[in-house]
Give the backbone structure.
Amino acid sequence: MQITSDLLHKALKKHFGFSSFKGQQEEIILNLLDGNDSFVLMPTGGGKSLCYQLPALLKEGTAIIISPLIALMKNQVDAIRGFMVEREGVAHFLNSSLTKIQIAEVREDLLSGRTKLLYVAPESLTKEENIALLKQIKISFYAIDEAHCISEWGHDFRPEYRRINPLVNEIGKAPVIALTATATPKVQSDIQKNLGMSGAKVYKSSFNRPNLYYEIRPKENIDKEIIKFLKNNHGKSGIIYCLSRKKVEEIAEFLNVNGIKALPYHAGLDATTRATNQDKFLMEDADIIVATIAFGMGIDKPDVRFVIHYDIPKSLEGYYQETGRSGRDGGEGQCIAFYSYKDIQKLEKFMQGKPISEQEIGKQLLAETVAYAESNLCRRTVLMNYFGEDYTAGKCGSCDNCLFPKNQFDGKEEVALVLELVLSMKEQFKSEHVANILSGVNNSLIKSYNHHNHELFGTGMSKGVKFWMAVIRQCIIHHLLEKEIERYGLLTITPKGEQYLGSPYTIMLAEDREFVSGDEDDEVVSAGIKGTGGGGDETLLKMLKDLRLSISRKINLPPFVIFNDTSLEDMSIHYPITFDELKNCQGVGEGKAKRYGKEFIELISKYVTENEIQRPSDLVIKSVANKSLNKVYIITGIDRKQPLDDIAESKGMELEDVLTEIEAIVNSGTKLNIDYYIRQTVDEDKVDDIYEYFKTEASTDSLKEAADELGRGYTEEEIRLVRIKFLSEMGN
């Protein structure tokens, strides 16, 4: 049967409760229903899932959805079943988490034709018994979700994804739709080539998420900053991303100590704990998930109000994907990342020992992240340029750089100098090399190419490497230069750049940001926060959310599966008191209205009749003093006379951080004896001098005052070590 646009809209309203499609959804679905391949690039929150869910319900046969994470599959299956009146068996997942009885049930529903969507992991797809099963059913189409996993240039490269095309050919040909929220032009090409879908119709939505606020903060007093932020956003759902499992555990514990309901999520936890923690977050039994990127693709919660990056991610794709978990419903979404170049250096260290080509790719991706973090350009402009899209609005007004911009200057001469240098070196070098030449950096690489004798060497020495890197990045944004990604970031001049050299014109540039601590951070956050702006009855909205939460706990489903925030906001505006009125609210289809609507209608009807407005009381979070997360480990190590450097390395910490922990332990009243370590690292005379200073001369325990008084011959580390000894012996 030919599906017309009118029939498609009726099906959308019936199954999902929406009156209209978003963006290119309708066009994508019709193309798939016509039996054609599709490649869909759509940002998180743009509605990718609907592009295969609706056609799966309408087409004959079963759609095979290839998805990378078990957690995501369960989430999606729960969601699709929540939309359907007759829901049993309509959607299943097939993976290693199922028992034999559950697998038999999936098999029976598949062979009977009851199942319209089957979610499988690429690893499950390779099993012979699953291939044999899928050969017995009619497949309507294949959907490859998170398709960027195919590309080694993508941020979540999964080798198993490269086997999908031959497996599809073995099981049986059918139309293919590949979907991803993040892909640079290079990754897009990689995906299409590997899936053998070069003839597919490409649908590319804008990468702009206008409801998200982007901010980069210096990584100073980070624990205090996070607690302050969370208390200012009490009751809102959020995700905090860390790069290591250890840090995830520490931060989750730290937040709970401070009275904030947080749970950890990483690949090192057993499957049951991961699933339990995710469900608690979805069911709003916990406000915060602290996670590694293992959680990145496993969350489908529309009302996450903020994403915090404790550590800066390894790539801009990873950053964009993870920030995209915020504000999926179009409401408020704050994206705060803490940045320190020390973290970049750590990530570079982790790459050592990997194949050279992998190191080169990793370094190139890291360089783009540094450029984004340190840039003073509009964050949206930089992000969208990275994904091959121009942001023409100029200033977005919803990032730290737009709200608090640096002074700009006419960079006509600087741009011309950069272009001239790139051209003179036959477009064979990277940004750093070009910036080093202009800054007069005479390192071994410069010398090996004899570039210290280049006529432009040192011409911009007074401005420094960082300045020239900023100029180069802005040349790329203005399409005067391009980075050859396949050649690991070599700079080339565009035709527009050649025209500029022939006839330079005024071009306004800005210097990069300096990361300094100060009170200005609070001002940036408050200026950047955007409310949902629902315009409804706030008291009723809260009552509706409470009812939703109560029902969700009874039936063990996440609250948003019942009704999402948009639906509740619409109810708080229109006060529906009949089923027909309820079905007219956003996101409320016939199935949902019949299954969940009765209690909501009764609540609204009673509220309308009584019209008693009750203001919700302010919630207060108790501030609990932070405890030393590594206290026991450090005390035990010192008792065993382990070198402090070894203690730091075994916990993945810097020595400076270990000293801070030891100081906290000693200041709290515990006596520690680090004489064994001091004897190995500090000259005996120095120990006596420093100890005597703190005993007889010091008016405070200030390191700065001690260093000024003792003179240049004493390092800060030496003073800290002896100060610990002094405080332990004299104070405890």
In short: The first strand starts at residue 38 and ends at 41. DSSP finds 35 helices and 17 strands in the chain.
